[in-house]
Amino acid sequence: MKIYVVGIGPGSLDHMTPYAKAAIEKSDVVVGYTVYVELVREMTRGKEVLSTPMKKEVDRCKIALDAALENKTVAFVCSGDAGVYGMAGIMIQVAKDHPEVEIEVVPGITAACSGAALLGAPLIHDFSIISLSDLLTPWDLIMKRVKLAAEADMSIVLYNPKSKKRRDYIDKAVDAILEFRSPDTPSGYVKMIGREGEMTKICKLTDLKDNDDIDMFTTVFIGNSTTEIINGRIVTPRGYKNV
Amino acid sequence: MKIYVVGIGPGSLDHMTPYAKAAIEKSDVVVGYTVYVELVREMTRGKEVLSTPMKKEVDRCKIALDAALENKTVAFVCSGDAGVYGMAGIMIQVAKDHPEVEIEVVPGITAACSGAALLGAPLIHDFSIISLSDLLTPWDLIMKRVKLAAEADMSIVLYNPKSKKRRDYIDKAVDAILEFRSPDTPSGYVKMIGREGEMTKICKLTDLKDNDDIDMFTTVFIGNSTTEIINGRIVTPRGYKNV
User: So what's the ipTM on this one?
Assistant: First the structure.
């Protein structure tokens, strides 16, 4: 009667922790969005696999809960970290009336960390992670957060920067950041981290606008006022004094 | 002539990725702060190990660079993620005049993610990571960031919340956050994540003040205005609409 909510990391099994792997191996049932279950296919042999399409997050949690209530051990897989825009929270919410079901959150490497590593070191100092998806959050609040993070001179990571229905959200976010930061601020983006088609790009803040590379599988990074480019890498110094 | 800057995760090898392990195993030399080198001791057998005490970060980078320039492969280990208050940035800075030395940043699980997993799911939605250490950053800027993150209603993670010389910094940060957030805001902290003496505590925002548990090995988590406690876990909902 246990559910592991497992962050499998960016995609490549090389970046998934032994603890996450063991949690899947110990489980009777593996639940998750089809694409993520596919990424851990080699660990699911001989197990019951219950995958569901995107946007059915609550249904997926109920499937995991039902399996746990049948006294099975369940691995509920999600990409990146289970606790950063992941399924850990909603799983605990859905299981609210069943405190007898143990829920263990297994951390994984989130796109902010795996993407930053590919770009150099943009997140060495204070930073904010903000999702531009307005499916569950009012757009005004998202923009307020972007502006305040820019005013705070923190590095900024944008998840879900664009989708078919909101192609100009990243442009609006960049415009808001430009009120506080130079157009030349070292920035970059990473697509399909750890998967086939991975792409990494370092650019200026303004280059993030009207940029057809950026899509829903992209994570965007924006430096702070001290961030520089060194040998083709983005580097945010540790502090505001000389190192 | 390659340096891997390796994030070894929270401490337990179970939470270190196979890629990070392989990077250490492929290396001729392992460089790092004594405590972190000790954590990966079983991987360093037969290798040259160069450890240095705390606060000698630039020296440590120079040692790693010198070894790489002797055509050795170097693993430069740091705790958590190499790119979040880690050594990735300063290593690239120190090697600035040696573009021939390849530097690969290997991500690991940072305390925000490993700590959040132990507390439940406090970071499911937008959040800021801020260090309260003023060794390299002016205190005014740190406080500005704390206030703006609070005003933005983002969850907040505080690294380096206290040291012997700055025992009241966390208290001042909490006071600043209280201008925007309820005293009852679900909060918590985790000490010595993944190591001996690990401790996890869930409390209210005001309980973080005058709190002798909190020290330099503690990571502090503060929820946003929608964060709740469910079955003894901190949960920040995915959005501001009903799930």
Answer: 0.96
